[in-house]
Amino acid sequence: MSYSSIILLLIFSLLLSITPTMAGKPFRARAVILPVTKDPSTNQYISTIFQRTPLKPVKLTIDIGGKALWVACDKPEYVSATYRPALCHSPQCKLAKSTSCGNCWDGPRPGCNNDTCSNVVYNTVEKSGQIGELATDAFAIRSTDGSNLGRVTRVPNLLFSCGSLFLGEKLANGVKGILGFGRTETSLPSLLSNSLGIAKKFAICLSSSKGVLFLGTGPYVMLPGITISNLLTYTPILTNPISTVYPVIKDFPDHSWPSMEYFIGLNSIKINGKTLKLNKKGNGGTKISTVEPYTVLQTSIYNAVTKAFTKAISRVPKVDPVAPFGMCYKASSLGSTRLGPGVPLVEFVLQNNVTWTFFGANSMVYVNNSDVVCLGFVDGGKKVRTSIVIGGHQLEDNLLEFDVGRLRVGFSSSLLGRRTTCGNFNFTSRA
Ligand SMILES: *[C@@H]1O[C@H](CO)[C@@H](O)[C@H](O)[C@H]1NC(C)=O
Ligand SMILES: *[C@@H]1O[C@H](CO)[C@@H](O)[C@H](O)[C@H]1NC(C)=O
Ligand SMILES: *[C@@H]1O[C@H](CO)[C@@H](O)[C@H](O)[C@H]1NC(C)=O
Ligand SMILES: *[C@@H]1O[C@H](CO)[C@@H](O)[C@H](O)[C@H]1NC(C)=O
């Protein structure tokens, strides 16, 4: 073997062995990445994390307002050599603000150990809560430079709530829990910011099929080389002083916590350029949710929106509404554009005078196998906890960056007008 080929071999093996102390500097990811899919039968957005020893893929439903990672620990499925329950009064219990301390008769096994603290986690899909044993286990995630997949980054002891799936019947097929991104110390952005030293922020780019979720610092780049993180305009994240967590049990300590979900300030709604007269009685604020499939409006707001929209689109034949929508039209009577069906614009004018524009692709929903398209906003009823919940369909093919550290949300508006989509991240690994 020649000298130069030995050098090449050395360099090659150096590249292959991911030594954490290469050149004396540990590898530090600036961002990590998760692929997202949408489950067509439940409309849930799902990601797969890698957890346990040996590492196992675990499908979880994404809840951006969720408190923690809640993973089903039912036997015999949960097997791990690195599972560690959080002992009473340990730093993990303190981080989760859990003051409980209990024994479990059926153990020892994951989710059932003596002298451990537990964490109540809200399953917002079920609108119910569940107690799970607080625990840590090994976790692995791909890093990214924003354009491509990078190395696998490991966290030896990621905190989660180890629950049981008996409440999981509304979760999509194969889903084993909830992946929470809320404003708590136990959500994924906080845990990864602490363990990996990445910025405490995340960005979601959802679509009706494949999407992507970034944690940490941008850029975020989609094929064909479009830096979507440059398209953001920002509005502040507001704190709703009233907790919005489930279940509604006053004695749970979390009910004295301010909202862990992401609220923004909505100043007005415009339809076809005209500002609606909104009854200011709508209270509870405006939040962004990945769990509601469509934007839910309190009745008075819903009525104002549909009235103005119907007026603006009066030339298009109406058809019988298809639940859960109240306004549907003959799809073939609407022109189609790169940004979806050609309909009047729906605009949310937010604090800081940021306008979030919903074009047809986000405001309208095609009904399967029919010539029907409906206005994709839903009447939530007269009495609601939150007047406006911006739901998944309205978020698709928009980049939203939740900068938890700086308390602001960035919006790109529709990427369809930028000749890319949220399905365009290059997930191909380098050879
Ligand atoms: C379209 O079909 C899917 C899968 O059956 C269903 O989940 C979804 O609700 C349907 N959409 C509409 C608007 O009916
Ligand atoms: C848990 O504690 C109970 C008594 O409080 C005891 O009977 C049981 O054996 C303990 N289980 C384990 C696994 O130590
Ligand atoms: C808000 O923005 C709109 C359009 O960009 C502009 O016409 C309007 O004057 C702005 N209003 C304020 C209060 O800055
Ligand atoms: C995607 O990334 C891979 C790995 O870096 C690269 O080889 C490939 O050319 C990229 N695909 C496109 C369409 O740019």
List keywords for this structure.
PEPTIDASE_A1, hydrolase, 431 residues, 2 domains, Aspartic_peptidase_A1, Cathepsin D, subunit A, domain 1, binds 2-acetamido-2-deoxy-beta-D-glucopyranose, four-stranded antiparallel beta sheet, 19-stranded mixed beta sheet, mainly beta, signal, 31 strands
> What does the average pLDDT come to?
89
Instruction: Kindly provide the radius of gyration, computed on alpha-carbon positions and rounded to a whole number of angstroms.
Output: 23 Å
Overall geometry comes to globular
Q: How much helical structure, as a percent, in the residues?
A: 10-25%
User: What ranges have pLDDT less than 50 throughout 5 or more consecutive residues?
Assistant: 1-23
Question: What CATH architecture of the largest domain do you see?
Answer: Beta Barrel
- For the record, the CATH class of the largest domain is Mainly Beta
CATH superfamily of the largest domain: Acid Proteases
Number of helices: 6
Number of domains: 2
Cα distance, first to last residue? Answer: 25 Å
The beta-strand count equals 31
| Share of residues in strands | 35-45%
Structural class call reads: mainly beta
List of distinct ligands in this structure: 2-acetamido-2-deoxy-beta-D-glucopyranose
Assign the CATH topology of the largest domain.
Cathepsin D, subunit A, domain 1
EC number: 3.4.23.12
Signal peptide: 1-23
Family: Belongs to the peptidase A1 family.
Protein name: Aspartyl protease
